[in-house]
Amino acid sequence: MDALENILTRKSVKKYKPDVVPKELLDKIVEAGLHAPSGLNKQAPIILVVTDKTVRDQLSAINMGKDPFHRADPFYGAPAVLVVLADKSASTYLYDGSLVMENMLLAAHALGLGACWIHRAKETFELPEGKALLEKLGIEGDYEGIGNCIVGYADIEPEKKPRKENRVYYV
After folding, report:
1. Is the dihedral of CA 5, 153, 47, 119 positive or negative?
2. Least packed by Cβ within 10 Å: which of 12, 61, 68, 80?
3. Is the pLDDT of residue 43 over 90?
């Protein structure tokens, strides 16, 4: 698939088959994320690849928090969650982490997988439970959660939504 077609046909997937995504495919997605541009080439983002169901479900519960509107799995049943965190000491950490997320979303689509950006990574890793998980995994530093890239085999054909008009101005 050429790059432009990949960008124009990617859609967020919000229903997944329970099938495990092979590590080789996850490694390719991660590699694409690691090759995202970063301010001053600081490469501030890191990626936490979560395929262990217990840890994945723990992240899901932390992500939901106590919000009464979040009673279902925020990861839509996806078997893999690629969490992007970025070192806050880099002035461009938020942008750098966002570029990592986009690269991974596009890579997943190019590999025939479904993916979606799930928010609340920032809130997840500000909570004591999120901080404890990072500590348990040996991840040290002043990291902020940027996003959760859920990945799996789509169990639905996502609807292509029209683009809004009047969003481009030529000068």
Report:
1. positive
2. 68
3. yes
